[in-house]
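Can anyone check this?
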Amino acid sequence: MTESFKGFGRASGAMVALAIVLVTALIGPATAWAQQPEPAAPAAQAAAAQGERRGGEANLVLPDLNQVPVGGYQGRSLLMIGLVVSALGILFGLVILNQLKNLPVHRSMREISELIYETCKTYLVTQGRFLAILEIFIAVIIVLYFGVLEGMAFGRVAIILLFSVVGILGSYSVAWFGIRVNTYANSRTAFASLEGKPYPVYAIPLKAGMSIGMLLISVELLIMLFILLFIPGDYAGACFIGFAIGESLGAAALRIAGGIFTKIADIGSDLMKIVFNIKEDDARNPGVIADCTGDNAGDSVGPSADGFETYGVTGVALITFIMLAVPQAATQIQLLVWIFVMRVMMIIASAFSYLLNEAIAKARYGSASKMNFEAPLTSLVWLTSVVSVVATYVVSYLLIAGLGDGTLWWKLSTIITCGTLAGAIIPELVKVFTSVESSHVKEVVTSSREGGPSLNILSGLVAGNFSAYWIGLSIVLLMTIAYFVSALGTSMTTLMLAPAVFAFGLVAFGFLGMGPVTIAVDSYGPVTDNAQSVFELSVIEGIPGIQQELKRDFGINAQFEHAKAMLEENDGAGNTFKATAKPVLIGTAVVGATTMIFSIIVELTEKLTVNVDKLGLLHPPFLLGLVTGGAIIYWFTGASMQAVTTGAYRAVEFIKANIKLEGVEKASVEDSKKVVEICTVYAQKGMFNIFLTVFFATLAFAFVEPFFFIGYLISIALFGLYQAVFMANAGGAWDNAKKIVETELKMKNTPLHAATVVGDTVGDPFKDTSSVALNPVIKFTTLFGLLAVSLAVRLAEQQGSGLAHGLAALFFLVSVVFVYRSFYGMRIGSH
């Protein structure tokens, strides 16, 4: 761990040196920051707001929301109701947390879940230190651009920095909440399985997921409403950009490091099943606790931070579009209030749908001895989708029926519906390629019978590639519908620039229309995975007199074998629904990035009046940028998997040397913590190299040429979409192929099982490291790019293009250093 911090220290020194170079270049033409006067009068501020404003989003002035009534109500009053709903959503999450804590659980299982929580705490504290250091990198650029170049007053720059910290703390806090909820739920789910009834084994993980989803979305909405309602309009843009960059930074770091950690632990633990022919989650395997910690670090911490950031960044992108592309203040107000009321409605729709679906599921499965665990999860997704769509049309009619020519309300509702339906349709397509019922997954099993690991891996690659085709076309179809609706008549074209771009942003908005439920079904997986592990690690079956104790203290006639079978089957459902959320989030990132990129284009083209011809293939830098983005996506994929490979090698090396299979009931806590430490070290090293490469590459490409950078941003979004979908679904197919062999065929410790375990270990970094981290990386690059390209353009104006190109070369060389470190410095032989 110390080496990781030394590495950060050396890199921080390099960053300071580069900052000095920039300050030296910029300070000459800039008036000293401390001497910058505040604007003389409010009238001057208003005049500036109407003219061309630099600094993009941070200099946007939001209108007074009470100037124009929205649906007959004051906009501020409607959004104040949103604050109440957000508070109730947070309360909903906290109440469920307390309910989970108070569910019955045997001490042996509780001890294991608390040990997992303690190791998760250690990991998150370490991550917190790294996030604090990473914030320094962003703070340097914020201060240089807004403070030095733009001559912004100290107070405004401080606000941007403050809200970037709020964004990081938001991502970090919901991650903490997620691991606390999940580590309560895992032991309670394991214990509930002893009764032999499947319904509690399903209901507890979903309840935990809804707790996380409701609190996460409600906290995000609360912060954004606070900015809209209580921060002065001329400061709100600064708050939004700082907040968005901060949460994006936090999500990217937590996703990357969590994804590396969890797959190092997972591979290290899984390979022992082949090496020593031991069972899944054998208590004697010191890698199992690390694997459980990884389930939370990668499948709970990462998705929680990612969902928090995705929800916020999509909102910020739409706010930016409205302020830049909609000229009339009255229209701006109505659209802003409408969007946030829709978000409030989506929280209510998700909570209502969950409660209704649970009532139906309990009536149907409450006393059943067997159930299809995927069925009520699927019905929840579709029920929420239908309720959200109906509510979208109703609320839009009530609020904006009079906007434009009277047709805008149903057009905007239809566009959002495209996104909402995507949130239900894409999971169904994912299940076609990853579910235990999938013919593609069964093909992976069949190919493994005679072809072993080789054909297993090839069949999984086939499933991943086919899935990218169908999911890609489904996104294109829904975006096409949105485009055609936006082009109907003149209602949208008369109100805004580039209505199709706004339509694409609303599709991304609709993707998150059932945000709490999307997060809930994604969080279902780590609880079911951990529950299976907690059951085995507790060695509850071997406790003397356990049957009598359970009967006396809990009134349970324990059915141990049936309980284990249910937990394994439920884990398959968890794997499937973890897989379904991944393409939804990456789709949101890509579609939402379109709106954010448009914000940069508007600034570079002065609202589409100049340089528009440079946004095409006839402008060579734009084409070169399109090609460059693909290189970064494939580097990222390799670098993240390299960190997993080296870390897993060290974990396997340690476990093989220290595992004790004779004379012990379970591995020592010290050995388990050592495996956790190995995972943490390599996760931090990998994340460190990857983040700094992305950071300096973004600066370098922004300084090359603005339209080169636009091409680059478009490229990473498109390459990233297909790479992420392919990898996520190939990994999901391999994972559930192994689950079929273990649960349906009951062929553990056979050559067929060994072949599927090998395929699963290949799929682990595919689905849970590289693919999932592309989402926050795309959004962080686009958001940070808003600052980087503005910085580059302003520097070129003041100092000439020579200095900008020189700095581009310097930043690129620094990025190449970290690219080198991410491969050659992370090789097994170098550690």
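Reply from J.R.: I decoded it. Residues 439-487 form the longest helix (49 residues).
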